[in-house]
Design brief:
The protein has 142 residues and is of the alpha+beta class. The protein has one domain: Double Stranded RNA Binding Domain, CATH 3.30.160.100. It has four helices and four strands. It has a four-stranded mixed β-sheet with strand order 1-2-3-4, with helices on one face. Helix 1 runs parallel beside helix 3.
């Protein structure tokens, strides 16, 4: 799993990087075959309102699926970015659960005959007898 951490307006310190890696490594348990994880941490200054801290996580799966989560919080103190990462990881867990559920539901929805359908169905004949040929063709009007 290739992990990339990028800071925009935020200096990514070793402790913050270690914190993020610790959180993201746990994603592999729930969704194997992750090829890459890209984390964007940014600080946005607002003239009209409070400053915002944004954490975005993008996960690319081996089969081509891309899962993304984002969390925006008002900047209150130094630990706001860690809270944003925690919330973004929680959202990613929900996205993974939904993604895995879709895959399982597709398997379940594949047509499988139920017991009722099997009881109603007629037995297949062992040999097919050709029907007697009628001299006049049958006309079907719709």
């Amino acid at each position: 799993m290739n992990v990339t951490i990028r800071g925009d307006g935020i200096q990514v310190s070793e402790s913050l990087e270690e914190f993020v890696l610790n959180k993201v490594d746990k994603l592999e348990r729930y969704l194997p075959n992750i090829t890459s994880v890209h984390i964007d941490l940014s600080h946005k200054n607002n003239n009209r309102g409070p400053d915002m801290v944004v954490a975005q996580i993008t996960v690319k799966h081996q089969r081509g699926a891309i899962l993304r989560s984002e969390e925006r919080l008002e900047k209150e103190d130094r630990d706001t970015i860690r809270m944003a990462v925690n919330h973004a990881v929680d959202k990613m867990y929900r996205r993974i659960r939904r993604f895995k559920g879709k895959r399982e539901n597709k398997r379940r929805e594949a047509y499988v005959a139920t017991l009722e359908e099997l009881e109603i169905a007629e037995e297949l004949p062992e040999s097919v007898e050709p029907e007697s040929e009628s001299s006049e063709p049958e006309i079907i009007r719709r």
